[in-house]
Write a structure and sequence with these properties.
The complex is a heterodimer of chains A (470) and B (69).
Chain A: H1 2-5, H2 13-21, H3 27-45, E1 48-51, H4 53-68, E2 80-84, H5 112-119, E3 123-128, H6 157-165, E4 170-175, H7 181-187, E5 190-193, E6 213-218, H8 221-232, E7 249-252, H9 263-278, E8 282-285, H10 291-317, H11 323-332, H12 337-361, E9 365-369, E10 382-385, E11 388-393, H13 394-399, H14 403-408, E12 412-419, E13 425-432, H15 437-455, H16 463-468
Parallel strand pairs in A: 2-3, 2-4, 7-8, 7-9
Antiparallel strand pairs in A: 1-3, 4-6, 5-6, 5-12, 9-13, 10-11, 12-13
Chain B: H1 4-17, H2 27-43, H3 62-65
Helix pairs in contact in B: 1-2
The chains are: A alpha/beta (470), B mainly alpha (69).
Chain lengths: 470, 69
């Protein structure tokens, strides 16, 4: 078994739980291994804005004492977690990677997410880097574990880096236009955006109230569901099992989700679809013609609400805001009321049309690339496509596939499905019916089995994690 | 459907009313405005006549989840 001769920092949550509950590992050992991994990778990857080693060690000792008496805290007993720095964690400032909040006081209460994670036994080991106020996809200064010259995506970039590199077993992200799924895709982790409105956003700095969703980044789909269930307060009575693929009907939607793709992304996703079909799933064409308009409506609502959230802040402390956000807020102030209302009308229309696609074709899920490009170089934030001379700015490129599902509100899981020609991970986006998170993750588990059979054990681990493992 | 260029002109004039100039030498701001215009035009591809805006959004699908959560 992997944890007997490997580094505990590389365990999945389910593996760690087995090791902890059978006495092969203590929480103190797991927390220490994760902090050691962070010490080795942080100088290069910058996943964290703040590590809370002392608090985490104290919590670990307490849990180990309980475990010696047969008391385990919950489904996340002893699991080291990174928390995106837009979530309140009591005792720590929520700086949102903005100089405008450099002197903000420490939060006095945990956000609901952090409260639920702690209640389930999770141990916070630090706060992870976000794009400023979660408004963007670069997450500076965090870097991609697969190539530190490249970005990790965003806005939950630090959380994806921590999970990928082994400096957290799971981490929290938020997703308004793709901010969980994008970094999961380009860092090679799993990321779950739950159904809009299911999980509380109390204590999380808002970006766009009509779209904001919180969820986990993890090493696989099973762990994503475990963290999701803890966040939702759902009791899991048995380990999640992969769904039998012959029971699964999958839709492929052209053209929106398969146009303007890097060749390596296209090839990896086509191969993944072929593997899934070979595994026995039904794969059918299921065009959703409103996907482009759905994305547009998401963009307009997101930008209009971001402007409202930040207009006073930009006016009063523009020197503390980064230029990207200032420009976004200024431009968004020009969105006319009719534009916002039409975007909200569009939301009504596209919710109806995606439902119709699922019903007409009997779909369990719709799959697509998560991003049209893999991790882009930090010094050149444009995506290029063959047969297309126009370079696409990273923020537009990365949200093109993800944002349609923020506007519909469906649950969406991203898992790695292969590599491009540079060896960078490619993410597969799996969108399900509203409130169908459990079935979605079971389908994700079935896909992961196929991909692991194809690529071999450990294929989602970046070289930096392997090089520094104990 | 309003053409993108006409929509842009409307938006820029609208901005001027509120004292916001969109200088063409400020390429990034101009690009941001053009993005907004492009997305407004994409929304115009839908038939929205008589459709109520989803100002408070319920993601439930009536045929799948019932009348709402």
């Amino acid at each position: 078994m992997i944890w007997l001769d490997g580094d505990p920092a590389d365990l999945t949550i389910s593996q760690a739980q087995t090791a902890l509950r059978t006495g092969k590992l203590t929480v103190a050992e797991l927390v220490e291994a994760t902090l050691t991994r962070a010490a080795r990778t942080e100088p290069v990857l910058h996943a964290y804005v703040k590590l809370t080693g002392d608090t985490a060690r104290a919590a670990a000792e307490q849990q180990d004492a309980g475990a010696r008496g047969g008391i385990f805290a919950g489904p996340l007993h002893g699991i080291p977690l990174g928390i995106k720095d837009i979530f309140d964690v009591a005792g720590l400032p929520t700086k949102c990677n903005s100089k405008s909040r450099a002197r903000v006081k420490a939060a006095t209460e945990d956000s609901t997410s952090v409260e639920m994670l702690k209640r389930a036994g999770g141990i916070v080991i630090g706060k992870t880097v976000t794009q400023e106020f979660a408004a963007g996809v670069v997450s500076h200064p965090a870097r991609n574990p697969w190539d530190p010259e490249r970005i990790p995506g965003g806005s939950s970039g630090g959380s994806a880096v921590a999970v990928s590199a082994g400096s957290a077993l799971a981490a929290m992200g938020s997703d308004t236009g793709g901010s969980i799924r994008i970094p999961a895709s380009v860092c090679g982790t799993a990321g779950l955006k739950p159904t809009y409105g299911v999980l509380s956003t109390k204590g999380v700095f808002p970006l766009s109230w009509a779209l904001d969703t919180v969820g986990p980044l993890t090493r696989n789909a099973e762990d994503a569901y475990t963290v999701y269930a803890a966040l939702a307060g759902t009791e899991q009575t048995a380990p999640l099992q992969p769904l039998a693929l012959p029971e699964v009907r999958i839709g492929i939607s052209h053209p929106h989700f398969f146009e303007r793709l890097q060749p390596g992304v296209y090839a990896a996703v086509r191969q993944a679809i072929a593997l899934i079909a070979t595994g026995g799933a039904s794969v059918v064409d299921a065009p959703w013609n409103d996907a482009r308009a759905a994305r547009a409506a998401g963009f307009i609502i997101n930008r209009a609400e971001t402007e409202i959230v930040h207009r006073e802040g930009v006016k009063n402390s523009s020197k503390g805001y980064g230029p990207t956000l200032v420009e976004r807020v200024r431009a968004s102030s020009l969105i006319p009321a009719s534009g916002l209302l039409r975007a909200q009308q569009a939301r009504t229309v596209v919710r109806g049309s995606i439902e119709q696609v699922f019903v007409d074709h009997g779909l369990d899920v719709m799959i697509s690339p998560a991003t049209p490009a893999t991790a882009l170089p930090a010094g050149d934030l444009f995506a290029d496509y063959p047969a297309d001379t126009a370079r696409e700015p990273v923020a537009l490129a990365y949200t093109r596939m993800t944002m349609p599902f923020n506007i519909t509100g469906q649950p969406v899981l991203v898992i790695p499905c292969g590599f491009d020609e540079l060896g960078l991970p490619v993410g597969l986006q799996i969108a399900a019916r509203p409130y169908d998170e459990e079935r979605l993750c079971r389908i994700g588990m079935a896909f992961e089995r196929l991909f692991t059979d194809h690529f071999g054990d450990g294929w989602t681990r970046p070289a930096i994690a392997l090089e520094v493992a104990q | 459907m309003e053409q993108p260029q006409a929509r842009r002109l409307t938006l820029v004039e609208f901005a001027q009313i509120f004292g916001v100039e969109i200088p063409t030498e400020d390429a990034s701001l101009e690009r941001s405005v053009d993005e907004i215009v492009g997305f407004l035009v994409d929304i115009d591809t839908l038939d929205l006549d008589g459709v109520p805006p989803a100002s408070i959004y319920d993601p439930a699908w009536p045929a799948v989840n019932g009348s709402g959560s």
